[in-house]
Amino acid sequence: NRMSHSTSFRSQSTKIYFQSLRSLNMLTLKFVNLLQEAEGGILDLKDAVRILAVGQKRRIYDITNVLEGIGLIMKISKRRVKWMGTMPGENTHELTTRLKELAAELDDLEQKELMLDQQRLWVEQSIRNTIEDCSKYLFHTCLNLEHIDFQQFPLYAFYKQVAIKYCRAA
């Protein structure tokens, strides 16, 4: 008799446990759907509690902690989260392909930036060399600075600033 009571209690608690898991699973699915349907994937947790009619706010926070831990959401503020996963109807393969394309484009842009930085350094060095080579003519150049048509140079504003700066320093 005692054995049947223990077995009955265990099967009852197992049943409650699985119902609870099923309930949490359903709540999680509803929460994710709510996130995916939210404008920009951003959801106020207070609204989620109200819309999903959750008795315990803690359950929503438990769900958000797990989703944040696996990278599906990001906390924007204390009460707001942003969905980082795929949206309904999106193909994860397409997103992966697009992500790879964007990464390749970023690498290409970084290479171009490095090349432009190097060219800028060369131009700056060329200007320094020219100024140094022509330093004996600096006084004459400064006197006639207003007669120079800087617009003939592609970077005329830059050259004019450099010339004025060096003339003031002289």
TrEMBL record:
For this protein, the record's Gene3D superfamilies field holds: 6.10.250.540, Winged helix-like DNA-binding domain superfamily/Winged helix DNA-binding domain (1.10.10.10)
Q: Check the record and name the Pfam families matching this protein.
A: WHD_E2F_TDP
User: From the Swiss-Prot or TrEMBL record, what is one GO molecular function term?
Assistant: DNA-binding transcription factor activity, RNA polymerase II-specific
The record's subcellular locations are: Nucleus
**Is Nucleotide-binding found in the keyword set?**
no
InterPro entries, alphabetized: E2F (IPR015633), E2F-DP_heterodim (IPR037241), E2F_WHTH_DNA-bd_dom (IPR003316), WH-like_DNA-bd_sf (IPR036388), WH_DNA-bd_sf (IPR036390)
Which spans of this chain does the record mark as coiled coil? Answer: 92-119
Q: Identify the residues that the record assigns to the E2F/DP family winged-helix DNA-binding domain, covering every copy.
A: 19-85
- Gene Ontology cellular-component annotations: RNA polymerase II transcription regulator complex
**Is Transit peptide given among the entry's keywords?**
no
Keywords assigned by UniProt, alphabetized:
Coiled coil, DNA-binding, Nucleus, Transcription, Transcription regulation
What's the family?
Belongs to the E2F/DP family.
This chain belongs to the protein called E2F/DP family winged-helix DNA-binding domain-containing protein
